[in-house]
Every structure is written in structure tokens, then in C-alpha cells.
């Protein structure tokens, strides 16, 4: 019987999130099931739906219920796009991990080679980034001067 009452309650609630009073809802559930639904059974089914997150409590003298709204309470934060130079640096470091390092060198040698590789790549990327920024500044100056 509880499942029937729960389904009937869910079927009566407006999809737009507007509320319906508990007294009215219980009467409509009784009409829909063609049997008088005891207040305790209605309250138990309603409370289960609230606990399951299917419905929310509303305001009103006799209490009311409604469907939860789908609008987020906080604005959605989109992930920060990763700049191209950071993606390229990550790729270079992954490439270094795949390099064939000859057997036998000490860890210090391996780490020194990795650090050297990192700084060479970082220098290359920094130069490319500076050139890109200079190019953008030049285009902005050209556009500003032509107006």
C-alpha cells in the first residue's frame, strides 16, 4: 500500500516545482486509489519520499510538498582551460619518461638529464609564449592605431 501511495503522490505533484498542500494531496490520493488513505499511511509514504529526495517540504498551514527544483544552489564552476604551453610541457615530460635510458647510470645522472631536458623544454616554451604575447600585443596596437 505504501508504494501505491508514493506513486500516487508523485503522480499528483506538478513538474514545475509548485507546491500542493498535504490535506488536498491526501484527498486526491484517496480519490485516485478509490479508498480512504489513513493520515498515518499518507504521512509515512510522504516522509519516505522526502528522505529519498523525490520530494521536498513546502510552506503552508497544513504543510505542503513539491518536487525539488533542478536549479543549482551555487553557480557551476567550469574547469579552467589549460593553456597550450602547459599541455605541451606535460607532453614533453611524458615523452621524457618514455625515453630509453641506458642501463647502469646512477640516479643522479638520470635526474640531471631529466632536469636538463625540463629546462630546455621550458626555455623553448617560454620563448614561444613570449613570441605569441608579442604578436598579440602588436596586433592589438595595429588594430588600435588603424581606428
How does this structure look, described?
By secondary structure, this protein is mainly alpha-helical. It folds into two domains: 2-66, Orthogonal Bundle (Arc Repressor Mutant, subunit A), CATH 1.10.10.10; 84-140, no CATH class. 61% of the residues lie in helices and 5% in strands. The protein has helices at residues 2-12, 22-33, 39-51, 84-97, 107-146; strands at 20-21, 56-57, 64-66. A three-stranded antiparallel beta sheet has the order 1-3-2. A hairpin with a 6-residue loop joins strand 2 (56-57) and strand 3 (64-66). Helix 4 packs antiparallel against helix 5 (107-146). The N and C termini lie far apart (76 Å). The model has no long low-confidence stretch (mean pLDDT 78).
Amino acid at each position: 500500500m505504501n508504494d501505491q501511495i508514493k506513486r500516487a503522490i508523485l503522480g499528483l505533484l506538478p513538474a514545475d516545482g509548485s507546491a500542493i498542500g498535504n490535506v488536498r494531496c491526501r484527498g486526491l490520493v484517496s480519490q485516485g486509489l478509490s479508498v480512504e488513505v489513513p493520515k498515518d499511511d499518507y504521512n509515512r509514504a510522504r516522509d519516505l519520499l522526502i528522505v529519498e529526495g523525490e520530494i521536498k517540504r513546502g510552506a503552508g498551514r497544513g504543510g505542503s510538498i513539491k518536487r525539488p527544483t533542478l536549479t543549482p544552489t551555487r553557480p557551476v564552476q567550469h574547469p579552467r582551460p589549460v593553456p597550450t604551453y602547459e599541455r605541451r610541457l606535460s607532453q614533453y615530460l611524458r615523452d621524457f619518461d618514455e625515453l630509453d635510458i641506458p642501463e647502469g647510470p646512477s640516479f643522479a645522472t638520470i635526474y640531471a638529464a631529466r632536469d636538463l631536458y625540463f629546462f630546455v623544454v621550458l626555455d623553448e616554451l617560454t620563448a614561444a609564449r613570449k613570441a605569441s604575447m608579442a604578436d598579440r600585443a602588436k596586433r592589438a596596437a595595429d588594430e588600435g592605431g588603424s581606428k
